[in-house]
Amino acid sequence: MPDAEGHPERSEIELGAVLSALADPLRRTVIRELLRAEDDVERTCTSFGLWESKSTRTHHFRVLRQAGLVRQVDRGNMRGVTLRRADLAARFPGLLELIAGER
Amino acid sequence: MPDAEGHPERSEIELGAVLSALADPLRRTVIRELLRAEDDVERTCTSFGLWESKSTRTHHFRVLRQAGLVRQVDRGNMRGVTLRRADLAARFPGLLELIAGER
C-alpha cells in the first residue's frame, strides 16, 4: 500500500502511471537532472526552476511521487526529492536509460 | 515531415509522443500483441477487439500512428496495421522490451 505521502512500494509501481508521468517534457527534465547527479543526491523541489507557481510545482511532483519515480521527504520549510533509481531499475530495466538518452 | 497519413519519419519520432501514446493501457495491449507476433505481421485494426465503436478505434490508432508506433495501410474496406519495430528499436533501445515485459 502506498505510504501516507502516496509513495507506492516497489512492487506497486505500475508502468502505466510511470509512462503517464514521463509523457510530460518538464517532468522528464526533472528525472534527467536527477539521473545525471550522483546516486541518491537530494534536491529541493524548487531547485529545478521549472515551474514558477507553487501549486503547479506541487502538482507535478505529486504525479512523479505517486507514480513511484521520486521520493519526497519533508525538511521543515522545504521538501527534498530523490530519484527512486534502484526501484525503477529493478522494476523496469531499460527505462532510466531511455529517459537519460533523450536528445 | 510526416506523410499524408501522419506517419512521422524515423528521425521525427519523439519520446514524449511515444510515452503519451503508451500511457494508455489498451494502446499498450495493441503494441504488446504486435510484439508477440512474427516480424512485420499485418493485422486489421478491428482484429484486436479492444474498442467497439469505430470512432474510438480510429482515435486510438491515430494516436499510435502519429506517435510513430505503428504504420497503417489502406486495404480498401479495412486498414492494416504493423508495428514499426525497427524504427522504434533504433530510436529508443529498450522501449519495446519494456512494453513486452509488462505483467
Contiguous low-pLDDT stretches of chain A (5 residues minimum) are: none
The amount of helix of chain A comes to 40-55%
Q: What form of chain A results from the Cα inertia axes?
A: globular
The first-level CATH class of chain A is given as: Mainly Alpha
CATH-defined topology of chain A: Arc Repressor Mutant, subunit A
| Total count of helical runs of at least 4 residues of chain A | 5
Q: Estimate nothing, just give the exact number of structural domains of chain A.
A: 1
Determine the most extensive contact between two protein chains: A-B, 18 and 18 residues
H-E string of chain A: HHEHEEHH
Q: What is the terminal separation of chain A in angstroms?
A: 36 Å
Q: What is the multimeric organization of the chains shown?
A: homodimer
Rounded mean pLDDT of chain A is 93
Number of strands of chain A: 3
Return Rg of chain A in Å: 13 Å
SSE topology:
Two copies of one chain form a homodimer.
Chain A: H1 15-22, H2 25-36, E1 43-44, H3 54-67, E2 70-74, E3 79-83, H4 85-91, H5 95-100
Antiparallel strand pairs in A: 1-3, 2-3
Describe this structure in words.
Chain A has helices at 15-22, 25-36, 54-67, 85-91, 95-100, and strands at 43-44, 70-74, 79-83. Chain A is globular, with a radius of gyration of 13 Å. The first copy, chain A, has a single domain, classed as Winged helix-like DNA-binding domain superfamily/Winged helix DNA-binding domain (Arc Repressor Mutant, subunit A), CATH 1.10.10.10. A 3-stranded antiparallel β-sheet of chain A has the order 1-3-2. Chain A contains 5 helices and 3 strands, in the order ααβαββαα. Chains A and B meet through helix 1 and helix 5 of A and helix 1 and helix 5 of B. Chains A, B: Residues 7-103 form the HTH arsR-type domain. Chains A, B: GO terms for molecular function: DNA-binding transcription factor activity. Chains A, B: This is Helix-turn-helix transcriptional regulator.
